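Quiz preparation item.
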């Protein structure tokens, strides 16, 4: 076996990913896994540029769980690819439990963070499977509650994923939690959904403060608005019922789409004439109906884009990049999506483009979480001093 073949194999094994995953992660073409297999076996040789690209690829998981004494422990529910986790890890926390049932999200999560991932949270045995922790993190899916709804006991949230969060909080009594959801959660089902959530958390003796924050106000060029709900254990910290957590003040640093765009982009991201014609036709139909829906074009000078969604992989309609010179527009690359969500540059994307678009669309704007995490942790520290001196 040539040393090139050995180097490539060693690189992949260090990362603990399959041939297909490394091929996807390094942006190789569709049959990249076959090519990579041939390189690894020594049957074929990559050219210098191809070899360099693989050798320059990350060798380590960028966010491995620290073994040193953590400042606090947290759990990551509905973890996706760990967007909420990153700032808590940066601030000296240790993740002691993760739940995510999608196998492709698990792949991205594992390659970046390592550690075990629990699957379906509805199947968890809370006392047995979840170790003690200080902070619960969860960007949970939004679901309606039954009509029985308000002012009832636990039974009325059963069957929804919020119930699983509620149960974990009830049994494990973390000091604090951070929940994230779509902005529409507040208005969902005429406001009932949010009201049930708030009442149930308050009934567990937690403070509840919610705020909608916009990613674009935190330095990433994306108009993504999300609701964040933060709570503290009133019994532990001795807090009054009307205690309000102070969310961070958005720094509102100016943003520009061009700052996150890649310099050289593979022509495969340029959409076809057929797809573009379809976009134009649908836009015209929407216009006739008097609404502003349809695809949206952005340039490098745009201040921000629309919200990146999990369906971006379908046709890219919410964010198309104008390439000028009469060229057809293009979609964002997965790396640009990572940047639009403020993920660090060393975050590894080990999945196909389609999966990556879904994962980043489902994820969070990391810089917003980073600022919330700072406030949450400093608040927790102050409250601890208040009670323990
Ligand atoms: C809105 S996404 C959260 C993404 C995450 N905040 C991130 O940074 O990537 C919700 C996630 O919950 C996961 N999920 C939904 N139902 C689940 C269940 N019963 N058990 C575990 N994970 C679940 C989905 O697969 C999805 O990845």
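Solution:
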């Amino acid at each position: 076996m040539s040393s090139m073949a050995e180097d490539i194999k060693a690189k992949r094994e260090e990362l603990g990913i399959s041939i297909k995953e490394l091929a996807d992660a390094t942006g190789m073409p569709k049959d990249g896994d076959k090519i990579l297999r041939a390189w690894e076996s020594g049957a074929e040789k990559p050219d210098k540029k191809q070899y360099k690209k693989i050798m320059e690829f990350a060798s380590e998981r960028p966010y491995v769980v620290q073994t040193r004494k953590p400042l606090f422990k947290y759990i990551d529910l509905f973890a996706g690819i760990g967007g909420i986790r990153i700032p808590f890890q940066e601030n000296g926390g240790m993740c002691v439990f993760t739940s995510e049932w999608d196998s492709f999200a698990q792949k991205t999560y594992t390659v970046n963070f390592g550690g075990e991932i629990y699957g379906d949270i509805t199947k968890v045995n809370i006392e047995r499977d979840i170790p003690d922790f200080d902070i619960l993190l969860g960007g949970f899916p939004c679901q309606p509650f039954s009509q029985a709804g308000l002012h009832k006991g636990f039974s009325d949230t059963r069957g929804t994923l919020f119930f699983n969060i509620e149960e974990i909080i009830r049994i494990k009594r973390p000091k604090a939690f951070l929940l994230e959801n779509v902005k529409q959660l507040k208005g969902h089902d005429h406001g009932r959904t949010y009201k049930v959530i708030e009442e149930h958390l308050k009934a567990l003796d937690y403070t509840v403060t919610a705020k909608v924050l916009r990613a674009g106000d935190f330095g990433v060029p994306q108009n993504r608005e999300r609701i964040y709900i933060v709570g503290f254990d009133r019994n532990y910290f001795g807090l009054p019922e009307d205690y309000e957590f102070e969310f961070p003040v958005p720094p509102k640093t100016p943003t520009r789409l061009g700052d996150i765009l890649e310099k050289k982009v593979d022509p495969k991201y340029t959409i076809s004439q057929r797809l573009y014609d379809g976009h134009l036709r649908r836009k015209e139909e929407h216009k006739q109906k008097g609404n502003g829906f349809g695809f949206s074009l952005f340039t490098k000078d745009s201040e921000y884009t629309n919200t990146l969604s999990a369906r971006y992989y379908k046709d890219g309609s919410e964010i198309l990049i104008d390439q000028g010179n009469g060229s057809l527009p293009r979609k964002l690359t997965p790396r640009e999506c990572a940047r639009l969500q403020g993920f660090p540059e060393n975050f590894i994307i080990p999945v196909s483009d389609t999966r990556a678009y879904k994962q980043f669309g489902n994820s969070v704007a990391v810089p917003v979480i980073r600022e919330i995490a700072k406030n949450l942790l400093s608040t927790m520290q102050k409250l601890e001093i208040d009670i323990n001196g």
